[in-house]
Amino acid sequence: MIRAMHNRAPTPRTRVSHPRSHRALAHVSAVATAGQVAEVHSAPAFDFEMYMRDRAEMVNKALDAALPSRYPEVLVDSMRYSVLAGGKRVRPALTLAACDLVGGDMATALPTACAMEMIHTMSLIHDDLPAMDNDDFRRGRPTNHKVYGEDIAILAGDALLSFAFEHIARDTKGVPADAVLKVIMELGRAVGAQGLSAGQAVDIKSEGQEVGLEVLEYIHHHKTAALLEAAVVCGALVGGADTATVEKLRKYALNIGLAFQVIDDILDVTQTTETLGKTAAKDLAVNKTTYPKLLGLEASRKVADDLIREAIAQLDEFEPARKAPMVALAHFIGYRKN
Ligand code: GRG
After folding, report:
1. Window from 27-41, 172-186, 313-327 with minimum mean pLDDT
2. Domain boundaries in the chain?
3. What are residue 142's DSSP bridge partners?
4. Hey, which of 59, 134, 200, 337 would you mutate to test ligand 1's pocket, going by the most ligand atoms within 8 Å of its Cβ?
């Protein structure tokens, strides 16, 4: 059902009543039984902090080695400035975890994981531009265009986007060519006119407008969930997953993807700029429609909880120890503070 919402174009500026949209989400809570939730909470001890530190270190090293570092310095400095500025590294962690979950060799997924982070960073650079969200602060430092100028920031984003695909195609080793092709197709779709670009276009054009839940879900699915979906699905493809498993993991990803943006909306009004590393209360300032604005904080929190539960329910067939990282990543996304 989430897949159907993902593909369907909303009617812009039509207000959809909350009850209908809530019915759409109602099955979410029904699917995850109390037993499943209990199983998640009693899963074997798993040190998520250590896991993420380890994954971030692995990805940061690989990014540093992969990113170009020669002439023209201004362009490569600008690319490296934003990519190596930190960030939670959730998308590459998901790619590596999905590959591992389906029995693949994580090393083979490292170029794809890095590509996810390059494209994510590229989207942040462009999102922060004056023509888009016009932000001065990202990952705890001045935004790319504040340091390098708008012209170079645009080019750094362009270069990161194309380099991501080049990196996957050239540096993925030990994976059948047809799986690499599928990865490139998934990623291309996720960022194009049916993915991030679409979500961003509708988001921008909806600013200051009366927007209902259906349009908001369209924006969140495309602007945010699409790349998280690609991160998980591409990790599974590199790991050699069969179609049924890929599609299960896609559902997991679409649920955590929507939850990610619902939580982002909540954090915008509940956290400080310092905690977020980006300007807080920005959605309010530009009168953006968000989940808290449409539903209130408590109901938004419940939507996120239900989505996380539904995501975890997709992992039923895997043993607790094997799925622990994917379960912990879902929890982290649902309960993060920045
Ligand atoms: C990729 C072709 C292409 C176009 C991009 C600008 C744009 C079109 C889309 C904007 C996408 C965007 C910035 C969505 C917001 C997603 C989001 C909640 C980002 C924050 O992610 P975190 O919290 O950030 O993972 P860190 O800094 O931790 O990585």
Report:
1. 27-41
2. 48-335
3. 137
4. 200
